[in-house]
Amino acid sequence: MSSGYIASAFAVSVAGLWDFDRWFTLAWTDTSLRYRRTVLGPWWVTLSMGAMIGSVGLVFGAIFGSNLSTYMPFFATGMIVWTLISATIIEGCIVFTQSSGLIKSTNTPLITHVYRMMARQLIVFAHNLALIALVWLIFRWDISFSIFLAVPGLVIVIVTLAGVVLTLGVLCTRFRDIQQIIGAALQLLFFLTPIIWMPNSLRGKRTVVLMDFNPLYYLVDVVRGPILGHTPSLLEWSMATGTALVVLLIGYTMFGKFSHRIAFWL
């Protein structure tokens, strides 16, 4: 029964959370080793992100004829959240294959590798948040107490990503071609999601479908909206929360049913 797989995966995931010292230490070590002997360390990622936001934001802001004081905060915040989502999904496809040596040689719970990878992405995301502060210092938009709603919004995004990683981690371990499909799909979804273009730039009823039926829009906006001083609507919260729960249940089902086979697929 799927409920049994879900319960089993839920128990494993909760037990894995308590092993915080192990997976967070591994994630921090991964980040440190990646930038060993560099001057800026992980800040190189933030510097690259800042250069991209500045250059692309100025170009597309001019193309769309948008007010930079409105467009740049929108684009910068959305891009940072999107990078967290896309990078986690892409690396989630190889979360087990890139740890095949450890999985085959140690008795470490598989969920530890998932938390390790996601913590690594959150460390980079935390560094990138400094760019939002920098953009605010330049453009100074109004900030209210609604900014604290970005925290539950980020939790919803993390829960959704956990479900996606559990699902794709299993599928891509068994079928390696899926990783290429996911990479191509994310490139397409980037242009279909309000990141480089603003929702008010849409014209016609058909184009509104890009937002109304795009779960990624809701996931990005429950974090971006509060940061920009806007309180997400009840519809946005409901769609984002519903997406998170559905995706997590699918992830738990996949992981609970096939986790015991992953070592044989590596």
Characterization of the model:
This protein has 266 residues and is mainly α. The chain has one domain (2-29, 41-265). Helix content is 75%, strand content 0%. The radius of gyration is 19 Å and the shape is globular.
In short:
By secondary structure, this protein is mostly helical.
Features:
mainly alpha; 12 helices; 75% helix; 266 residues
Explain the layout of strands and helices.
Layout: H1 2-18, H2 20-34, H3 43-63, H4 68-92, H5 100-105, H6 110-139, H7 150-174, H8 178-192, H9 209-212, H10 215-227, H11 234-258, H12 262-265
Helix pairs in contact: 1-11, 2-6, 3-4, 3-6, 4-6, 4-7, 4-8, 4-10, 7-10, 7-11, 10-11
Low-confidence stretches: none
Distance between the termini: 26 Å
Spatial shape: globular
What is the number of helical segments per DSSP (H or I, 4+ residues)?
12
Order of helices and strands: HHHHHHHHHHHH
- Helix percent band: over 70%
Mean of pLDDT: 85
Structural class, from secondary structure content? mainly alpha
The largest β sheet comes out as: none
* Total discrete domains: 1
Rg on CA atoms, Å? 19 Å
The total count of strands amounts to 0
Strand content: under 5%
